[in-house]
Each structure stands twice: as structure tokens, then as C-alpha cells.
Amino acid sequence: MTPAEQSRQARRICALAPIIPVIVVKEVAHAAPLARALVAGGLPALEVTLRTPVALEAIRAMADVEGGTVGAGTLLTPADVKAAKAAGARFGVSPGLTETLVKACEDEGLPLLPGAVTASEVMRAMEWGYDCLKFFPAGTSGGAAAIKALGAPMPQVGFCPTGGVSLANAADYLSLKNVLCAGGSWVAPQAKMEAGDWTGIEDLAREAAALPR
Predict the structure, then answer these.
(1) Tens digit of pLDDT at every position of the chain (213 positions)
(2) Sign of CA dihedral 8, 38, 189, 212
(3) Which one is catalytic: 85, 106, 108, 134?
(4) Is residue 134 annotated as a catalytic residue, yes or no?
(5) Global pTM?
């Protein structure tokens, strides 16, 4: 799968809802009910970050949830890409972009949403064929103003800002022409997962799904 094909797939995933939940799963038992709650609330694209020992098991559990499209976040190496695809991830997200990561996603046929924040990083991604990128970390890299500025010379690139995005500022990002969606962790708080408050998480998801873009 070429980078251009990956970006086409990534754009379709970004179009599913205004927010992609950025999820940290610490207990496998939370994975399926969490996915069901988020999907029921209107957020079908789910990014499970590879930051815990059970992340791959969580992806396997979420992959079976009807209506969901589960992906793997924090892809750093070719081994991460291979493991994520084997676990059932349908897309990948990375904080940056390297040549080895590009080749791994081509070989594994995994659509990648790679990270970029500077004009040079965006231009390099475009040289490889990507035009759908993660803007990370958004909050400390100029936020919505920086993404808007990048849109002037490179309007063909669509972004998913992540990192510091919240319900309070999500609309600032989503109002931009070159923002396809945004990634946020507030819709899957650890406290609610530990309490088994899936109804509360569904409510947060529904509120996020209603954000205009």
C-alpha cells in the first residue's frame, strides 16, 4: 500500500467523526466495553496507543466490536507496525515519520497517519506521498494558528491535530479548512474506565461527536 493510498484510507477514517479518541488501555477487560460505549456515542474510529503492556490485546478485543474501526497509536518502529497489523489494527498513527516506518506500512498494508508539525516535515511527508497528517503535539506547536498558517502554502494537506486538544478548544481546530478531525483523550478518561462508567463515556462521546466541523 503506497503512502498515497494510505492517505486516502486515512482521510476516510478521519471523515467518520470529528474526534478520534486517543485511548490508553491499562486493563484488557476495559477494551470491549470502552469501544462499544465510544461507538454508541458516535465515535467509531478508535486509536489505542501502544503505551501499555496490554495495548495489543486491547486492539484484538476492540477489533471485534461492531461498527468500530480500531487503530494503533504511538507506532515508532517497523516491529510496532507488524504487531499492530497482526492484532487487527486497521490504521496506524505515529508521532513522526521515518523512512523505515514508511516502508513497514507499505509492506504490511497498514494506512498510516504520520506526525508532522513544521513546514519541512510536512514537505518531506508530501515527497513520500502523504497528504493526510497528524499534527502533534498540537498544543505546544502553535495550535490552531500554526495549522492555519501551514494551509496557505500547502492547502492540499489535511491534518488531525492531537496533543492538548480538549472539548474547550476542539472547535478552534475543527473550524479550519485543513483540519479533517482531531484526536482527544478526554472522551476516555481513566477514572471512568476504572469505575466501569460506560454510560458516562458514551455521553462524552456523544458530546464530542456533535462538535461542528
Answers:
(1) 999 999 999 999 999 999 999 999 999 999 999 999 999 999 999 999 999 999 999 999 999 999 999 999 999 999 999 999 999 999 999 999 999 999 999 999 999 999 999 999 999 999 999 999 999 999 999 999 999 999 999 999 999 999 999 999 999 999 999 999 999 999 999 999 999 999 999 999 999 999 998
(2) positive
(3) 134
(4) yes
(5) 0.96
**How many beta carbons lie within 10 A of that of residue 50, not counting itself?**
23
Question: Which triple of cell numbers denotes residue 119?
Answer: 513546514
The answer to whether residue 103 is catalytic is no
Q: Which cell numbers in the block locate residue 6?
A: 494510505
- Give ∠ CA 121-163-194 in degrees, rounded to 5: 145
44 vs 118: CA distance, rounded Å: 29
Tell me if 33 sits within 8 A of 53, measured CB to CB: no
Q: Of all helices (H) and strands (E), which one includes residue 205?
A: helix 198-209
The one catalytic residue among 47, 106, 108, 202: 47
